[in-house]
Amino acid sequence: MRRLIWLILVLSLLAVVTSCGGNNAGDDDQTTLDDDAVDDDAADDDAADDDVDDDVDDDVDDDVDDDTDDDADDDIDDDVDDDVDDDTTPGYVTPFITDEQGREVIIHGVNFMGLEFGGFSHTQEDYDRIAAWGFTHVRLPISWKFMEPEEGVWDASYLTDIVQADLDYAQNAGLHVILDMHQWQWCSIFGGGNGAPDWTCVGLYPDNFIGMLEYAGNFWTSDLHEHWVQAWQLVWNTLGNHPAIWGYDLFNEPWAGVASIFPAFERDTLTQFYANLIAILREQDPDRWVLIEPQLLREVLPVYLQPIDDPKLIYAPHLYSCETAQGGISAWCPPAWIERDVLTTDWTRQRLDLPAMVGEFGITSCLDETESFLREQLAAFDRYRYGFTVWVYWRGDCSFDLLDSTGNDKDILLNHLLRPYPRAVAGHIESFAFDEDTKVFTLTFSASAATGDTLIFIPQRHYPNGVVVESSDPAGAWSYAYDAANQVLSYQHDPNSAEHTVTISPAP
Question: Dihedral angle at the C-alpha atoms of 262, 265, 266, 268, nearest 10 degrees?
């Protein structure tokens, strides 16, 4: 992934230099971020985005915070060479994903690939297995390609015959689904990419990286992005009432070719695209969660997404730290890089004032560093109180897949992924951590208006003989019940204590 990102970046810069002829074209736009956050030479891209901006519906302008104030600017740190902050426990009180009882929720789930590229072989057994492991959510990639096979010809059968079956499987297994409108390398001619229909690319672009770069830019300046919106409308009109749907991830890894290197793509075009799409959804569904992602180049460029006013919005970047998306770990990767990747992500969620989760991450199962990497990355997610959906549930040997090619569990991955965590907390989560060596889990939370029990996932693979539970609450003022079959511990805290620390250890 990092090699692809750097290639995009370098070729984009070359394209800009060539097209500009070395001229220093000034930009009169006054909505750019301050000089510390944005390179002056990069600010001249607004004109390239005018075509998209003209298409934006002004009716929802109020939903986007167009004022790039000083506080927001200060939160964007584009000096990526600074040392990692030694304080790895964030002090910012951020919003959390919550349930109907006001409890703060941490999500542990999987991505289940296949439907986005024609792999229509999912079964009820797959979903039952995901639930039995202890995951609660499935991020399910789907594709515009199968909804509009010919320009202007919409076909809901992909949704009713294929996607709905997966939703039914998930409901039967007690799982929640995040529908993800997916693209990976856009179109089939670009190295087997998926997401967009062939009629948008075949015969129109060279079938190479330069063609893909051009396509990515044209997606936002032509009317193709409007077809993406129509695809979502078809999903909502066809499947919007299905009880298994928990949320919608609006765009997988968006990018815009050359325009991606300039702040205006995220700041203006992508932010407004999200705001418009959310406004359409809210006309018929005010309740489901919406996930938004930064652009593909977030790993090497600052994130310029702007705040959007919606009460059920989640910032959901993909964190393939240390080049793991390329199937390995870069030799240059220092131990602090994982920490820094999560830390810079947290700066963005603070600026956007949103709850956050990691929409994708993962590592192949056959590296010497696989287990040490997962220990570090998952511990960092816990420190920053992030949930996740890991890439990916499927079958393969030396791969990201959670099953091997014969369908057996990959314990080298699952032993780390299936870890204790707070599923729902009747209070504000201050911190939680799991020591993989001692198997001791600790959760600290403070009082809030939330009701109900605090639910903690306790996987049997780490606690085969049961648990020992301790609490900072006064003796006799708290209680718990452990459901070993469902791997869930229910904790009832002392209502008169302002803060609670629960410690769970394996029974001897």
Answer: 120
Within 21-69, residue ranges assigned H as helices are 50-55
Token pair of 259, please?
Answer: 């325009």
Contacts of 104 (CB under 8 A, 6+ apart): 96, 97, 98, 422, 424, 425, 427, 428, 429, 445, 448, 450
Long-range Cβ contact pairs of 78-83 (< 8 A, separation 24 or more): 78/36, 78/37, 78/38, 78/302, 80/300, 80/340, 80/344, 83/336
Q: Which residue has the tokens 């809030």?
A: 448
Is the bond preceding residue 38 a cis peptide, omega within 30 degrees? no
**Other beta carbons less than 10 A from residue 111's beta carbon:** 25
Token pair listed for 344: 């810079």
- Token look-up 């090497």 returns 300
> pLDDT (tens digit, 9 = 90+) per residue, 169-208?
999 999 999 999 999 999 999 999 999 999 999 999 999 9
Distance CA 78, CA 75 (A): 10
CA 5/CA 210 separation, integer angstroms: 14
Are 419 and 412 a contacting pair, CB within 8 Å?
Answer: no
Beta carbons of 446 and 431 less than 8 angstroms apart: no
The tokens describing 330, both together, are 């870069």
Range list of β-strands (E), 405-498: 421-425, 428-435, 440-446, 454-457, 467-471, 479-483, 488-492
CA distance 146 to 155: 8
How far, CA to CA in Å, does 161 sit from each of 155, 231, 238, 302? 11, 16, 11, 41
328: helix, strand or coil: coil
Radius of gyration of the chain (CA): 23
- Give the residues across from 469 on adjacent strands: 504
Phi, psi angles (nearest 5°) of residue 52: -70, -45
- Alpha-carbon distances, residue 56 vs 181, 387, 485 (angstroms): 20, 32, 51
The C-alpha angle 255, 65, 74, rounded to 5 degrees, equals 80
pTM (2 d.p.): 0.85
The confidence score (pLDDT) of residue 18 equals 35
Pick from 372, 371, 444, 383: nearest CA to 411: 371
SS3 labels along 239-267: HCCCCCEEEEECCCCCCCHHHHHCHHHHH
- In angstroms, the CA 323 to CA 329 distance is 5
pLDDT score at 51? 38
Angle between helices 124-133 and 164-173 (to 10 degrees): 40
CA distance 85 to 340: 8
Chain centre distance of CA 205 = 30
Q: Which amino acid is at 294?
A: P
- What is the dihedral angle through the alpha carbons of 223, 227, 230, 232, rounded to the nearest 10 degrees? -120
The alpha carbon of residue 489 and the mean position of all alpha carbons in its chain are separated, in whole angstroms, by 27
SS3 (DSSP) at 67? coil
